[in-house]
């Protein structure tokens, strides 16, 4: 067996990915080849010399993950919580604006009433004029007074 | 079925139970899962990030994405699924920042390099007193490997993933993953030269 292929098989053997048939063939190869045995040892020792990381995630990582997942599950709630001060300020401003607007409306409704009253006067004046003009024209045509016609 | 397969299957059933418990509102179940996989996952992330804080951030993101996309989780192993997410996140970050990790880069406030931090304690099963030195040299040599080879190397040597799982993570064939590993081992052999002969002859 070529060294390249042998190394491949040794790697697969270590990861438990060789078929029983391949394992038997590798066993035969190892029995007869010194180089194969050396390579196998070398790979095993390389693995054995690997240092395991001494650093772990911070102790709060678990709770941070749980908190993030809670946030993701209730995004609307979180947004509301984050915007609470801004929402309170907006509510206050709306209240002030409402009060001011209410006073403004009271003033404007009084003036509107005056205008409306004036408007009736202005509107009724020409009507009366028209009516009296119409009356006199009818009287002139018929020669009778309006009172007689009405009767 | 081999013993490791039986252990892995049992482990996966436990994971499924814990995930189901978390979905039903048991927040402690998530804590158990995080605790269970924190070492291999965090160690892997740390090797590809800019330091502890950065690794912490990625670690959290991996879990958040894993839980959020749990309905898409079809793999047999949760760890392999977590590594897949970690791989995707790190590829994005590497592309964005064009960051090249150096083990000599100071990664903490006390000026300790990432290599020193990684090797501060905890040796592999065969390691003895002299093994720490060799372990550090392997760390340094592996840090010089191209990203894909480095990833295969650590996923296999430290996280103990199979080449099938690694191939899924890297979205390549098993043969490609194997070839990357072979290149990595070959480069380490050249880089470590003397120490590598020691590995062959004395066997630390």
* Annotation, overall tally of beta strands of chain B: 0
Overall radius of gyration of chain A: 51 Å
H/E series of chain A, N to C? HHHHHHH
Number of helices of chain A: 7
Mean pLDDT of chain B: 77
What class, by secondary structure content of chain A?
A: mainly alpha
Which percent range describes the beta-strand content of chain B?
A: under 5%
- Structural class given helices, strands, pairing of chain B? mainly alpha
The percent of residues in helical segments of chain B reads over 70%
Number of helices of chain B: 9
Count of extended strands of chain A: 0
Largest sheet properties of chain B: none
Strand count, sense and closure of the main sheet of chain A?
A: none
What is the global morphology of chain B?
elongated
**Largest two-chain interface:** A-B, 35 and 59 residues
Rounded mean pLDDT score of chain A: 78
Report on this structure.
The complex is a heterodimer of chains A (about 150) and B (about 200). In chain A, helix 2 crosses helix 3 (about 35-50). Chain A has helices at about 5-15, 20-30, 35-50, 60-75, 75-80, 85-140, 145-150. By secondary structure, chain A is mainly α. Chain A starts with a helix and ends with a helix. The model of chain A has no long low-confidence stretch (mean pLDDT about 80). In chain B, about 70% of the residues lie in helices and about 0% in strands. Chain B has nine helices and no strands. Chain B has helices at about 5-25, 25-45, 50-70, 80-95, 115-120, 130-145, 145-155, 165-170, 175-200. The chains are: A mainly alpha (about 150), B mainly alpha (about 200).
Quick summary:
The complex is a heterodimer of chains A (151) and B (204). Chain A is mostly helical and 151 residues long. Chain A has 7 helices and no strands.
